[in-house]
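SEQUENCE-TO-STRUCTURE ENTRY
===========================

Backbone structure tokens: a row of integers, each naming the local backbone shape at its residue.

Task: work out the structure tokens from the sequence, keeping to the layout shown below.
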Amino acid sequence: MEPIFTPAQLAEINAYHLPFYIRSAVNPFVTLGFLALTLGPLNKHFYRFSQAMAARLGGRFAFLRTAPVSRVLFRALDRLWGEPGWGAAVLFALCVDLSFKIALAPIDFYFSYILEHRYGMSAYTPLTYTVDLLKSTLVGTLAVCALVLGLYGLARRLRRWWLVLGVPAALLMLVSSALDPYRGRVYFDQAPLEAGALRNRLTELMARADIPFADVLVEKTSVASKRVQAYFAGQGPTRTIVLNDVLLQEFTEDEILAAVAHEAGHVNESRWPSRLASSLALVAFLFVIDRLLRLAAARGWFGAPRFADIRTLPLLSLLLFFVMTGSAPIAAAFSREREREADRYALRLMKDPATFRQMLVKAARVNKMDPEPPRWIVLKGLTHPPVGERIAALSEP
């Protein structure tokens, strides 16, 4: 049987992945080091800077507080915060967030641009890379502002803020997947798959699987990446099959059907238990944050004079780091099992193991997948079984 890679290809795969493995091993210590700095010497410097900058901006743009439209927003924010100072709080949070991003910018640029181009995985130009970087920075900035004003603002106003914020957020998590088809459009253009044999065959395949869907879209990711990708987005009336344009260029129709059959296996998964668990975990996490903020206020950590002082933000980041690091191996183990079951589902639906194997081999070659990554990488948080393992499973009875 044809091997996944030739020796030369395998050597290139190993050389490509080695820097990522080194980064995966070092990253937790880098993050902990930065958090230690923001919990220590940088905390007071960021706080003083944010207060001074807020005062300067407040004086320069004081007219916005009386302008017909902006004054409504300012009054709402003042009311939410309960006292002056929300501007300094937002600036403090942005100092923490952006300083970490700036410190890691050279490393991120190496991995996301230089290394990807060196091994032929990226189609970014300097302009398109910069545009996407600015988009992600803007999204991140808005998320930080929403976190500060929402979490800290409510915490300062309501005793049971964690319920007031957690319950709606948990409910939103339950239905957020319906919005999935629209998220990808922030970065890539999408267009309906043209009428023809492939669309007809996909429709027939979904009819056999008894999976209704709204449309088949082509996502134009080739402007940024040379990887193949297929996925389902949305739920119910918004469920959409998304194929990226690289997949249409590199795969035959049979291989595309095999890839979609695998993704169809995820549609039939029972997702409500995990969604409910995630929603409950979110509320519990917010409760733990409430206890931590009260402890910080009681002991006067960071010189905070009151409950929900913005200077405790790095402490919440540290808590999130430990929660995510500890839960990642467990979540990844469940994810790998779901991927195995999706493979088995696709084989039952397609009844064509040879084509499914051919699809996996081609995907491994195009995406430069490591067929046998180090075991610690798998256990640390790999969401898919190694492709070598998936192909080997096809020969099992």
Q: What stands out?
A: The mean pLDDT is 91. The CA atoms of residues 251 and 282 lie 40 Å apart.
